[in-house]
Design brief:
Number of strands: 8
Largest sheet: 3 strands, mixed
Strand order of the largest sheet: 3-2-4
Order of helices and strands: EHHHHEEHHHHEHEHHEEHHE
Strand content: 5-15%
Length: 423
Amino acid sequence: MAQLTNYTVPRGAKFGWVDQPNQRGTIEIIWSYLLVIFTCVWTVLHINVPKQGEGYWSMFFRKFRWAGFTVFAPEMVTLAAASQRSSARRSVPMMRALGIDYWTPIHGFFADSGGFLLHTPDVPPFPVNTRAVQYLVEKKYLTLRREQVVKEQIWDKSKADRFAKAVAFIQSTYMLIQVIARPTQSLDISCLELVTVAFVACTAFTYYFWMDKPLGVEYPIKLHISTSMATILRDAGDIAKRPYVDTPMDFVEQPGWRAWKRREMFRNFAGMGQRPIPRVPNDLIPPPSTLRLAFPLWGITVSYAAIHVAGWNHDFPTTSESIIWRCSSVTMFVVLFLWGIAEVMTVKPGFNFTLTLLGIWEKESTKDTPFRNWAVDAPATVSAMLYFVARTVILAEAVASMRLMPSTVYQTVQWTDLLPAFT
């Protein structure tokens, strides 16, 4: 166990576990950055409304699973947040055109997360999203009373912890300042710090996109209508004749999901075997509706991968690990760059190829030919597997490299040297 100071450490030397009293210690680096990741994850995740009567531990483990997914693929959570925000904002002019002038993005987020539970005479209660609510109001099946959906009432259901978010913001800001300042004094950063920077940068966008989404809501608002669902489906005509997949209101759900469908093996996953579904799954993400949204999201994901490539010249414990990091970071970048373009192209009406998303959602071509079915989907599937391997290696190496790092990683930033001199 080594004890170092900023003034006695020889440059070029490498150390394993370093004690803390006179400089940055190994334990300080590990705990400070793991704490940043933990607080960011736990405060940024806005899980959808649970089903009625669901227990605390069931909700806890669902959030825990998503926390793990967020650490592994934060750019996917950013995609979800941005798409949900787009859907929530798009609902505002539609609802206000129907005379619901108090409708805000908060209402849209609340509806799309399963906050409104529809009760009809002939079907078990089920959640309805913004488009379903709009349809029911437009067709005079549902009357929304202002006192029933007051924004403050919805926000009161939220458990947004401003103190926890403030702590996460302060921690993240201080960490970013540290990482930016270190190269100005020729001080190295650890791979764990680099991974954390990429994570925080991506999570910052997620915070912004979910700014108006209520957090931790446990109970929905019940909407009661006297018209039977059978009557609503009959009056809707041909568009409602196909058997529904999730709820009887599938025919007016987000139009993108008419093309994207959950694979059969995942249809009843995580307690979702009941029909109509009792809650909105957290992976039910409305796809980007326009290239105006899709391209910026593609840019965010590519930038996230590029930060890992910035560790190209990091001084790893062995040459083999340096090569592994370079290959893995470049693989992540290339996959997100090329695969992202394919995902962006699905927004265009002329795109007619089968494609899977995360192995869960599938968009089938209307032309059942081997070329249409595999030309895009096969490379995308291989790319997804390569990304999984590369991301796993990056996370593992970020931890493994802590066993032997350059001595300057442990030196602290001399903040006084960064201040302008006054004479």
